[in-house]
Amino acid sequence: MSSAGNVGNxxxxxxxxxxxxxxxxxxxxxxxxVPVGSRVIIKTDDYVCYMMLLRFLKxxxxxxxxxxxxxxxxxxxxxxxxx
Length: 83
Prior knowledge:
Translation Initiation Factor IF3
């Protein structure tokens, strides 16, 4: 199950436990709710999904601030809502 919401001054979308294409659909649906200029943190535990999300965000024109491949299959993407 995904979770989304405000975390401090950022908006978090957690799609851990899911495999593509479901996370792409969830991220697309949640991004339209985020104001332009806001920071978005996307978390997943699936490497393929992580790579697809990076590519998807670039295609959408979103600004990727950083991406991290953490320990224990934790992948984080921090983007700034550009469009």
